[in-house]
Amino acid sequence: MNILLIEDDDLLAQGVQSALTNDKWSVSLASRAHQALQIIHNQETRPDLIILDLGLPDMDGVDLLHRIKGMQSDGIALPVLVLTARDSIGDKVLGLDSGADDYLTKPFEVEELQARLRVLERRFSPIAIETIRVGSVILDTSRYSLTVDTETYILPRREFALLRTLMESPGRVFSREQLIDRMYEWDEEISSNSVDVHIHNLRKKTGADFIRSIRGVGWLVVK
């Protein structure tokens, strides 16, 4: 997958480019909004996915996001992951309401950025990936169903969102806050023990050892 990183901090841009290139991605850079628009409009250089910083020198990133998403009427539909230091709830809501497909705040871990890119790649791939398998556990993303050995369960929405997050990045530890972000909408009330309850319910289905707790840190799916 070809990625366009729109970021005016050269040091950060080069670091992200290097990290993603060492993984599996092809990454081109643009430090200005107008440079990015030229790349996007050119069919030969058009990326498959965009990582967008909102603090650009020649155009506000939200305005650029609107312009990119407005290209859908011309048949140009590109997923956009916003990568920004704007970390207030209002900024996140504005970014998502403006069409961002994901929103990650700085500072960030490269591993999380890579995981979110893999999610977007699966979501927007021409051939949708409908199942995620880790060992004997299979999650069907089109039916919200979980199969463990010969048993199949239909999962409630929040259990599904939590388990999908963990299974998409097996071996990676997710904190309580990260899992809550994946399970709940912005306007929903959040219970302090909601993650514990959902993990308890999932362990009944997957087996107690599939989701491991790291005390004081979070949870992970064992590879």
CATH architecture label of the largest domain: 3-Layer(aba) Sandwich
Mean pLDDT, all residues = 89
Q: Mind telling me the CATH class of the largest domain?
A: Alpha Beta
> What is the 3D shape?
elongated
Strand order of the largest sheet: 2-1-3-4-5
- Helical segment count: 8
CATH topology of the largest domain: Rossmann fold
What is the strand content? 15-25%
**Domain unit count:** 2
| Element order: H for helix, E for strand | EHEHEHEHEHEEEEHHHEE
Helicity level, as a percent range? 40-55%
**Which residue ranges are poorly predicted, with pLDDT under 50 across at least 5 consecutive positions?**
none
Distance between the termini: 25 Å
Q: Strand tally, please?
A: 11
Structural class: alpha/beta
- How big is the Rg? 19 Å
Can you summarize the main beta sheet?
A: 5 strands, parallel
CATH superfamily of the largest domain: Response regulator
Fold and architecture overview:
The chain has helices at 10-23, 33-41, 61-70, 89-97, 110-124, 157-168, 176-183, 194-206; strands at 2-6, 26-30, 49-52, 80-84, 102-105, 131-134, 137-140, 145-148, 151-154, 211-214, 218-221. The protein is α/β, with parallel strands linked by helices. It has a 5-stranded parallel β-sheet with strand order 2-1-3-4-5, with helices on both faces. It has a 4-stranded antiparallel β-sheet with strand order 6-7-8-9, with helices on one face. Helix 6 crosses helix 7 (176-183) and helix 6 (157-168) crosses helix 8. The longest helix has 15 residues, at 110-124. The protein starts with a strand and ends with a strand. The mean pLDDT is 89.
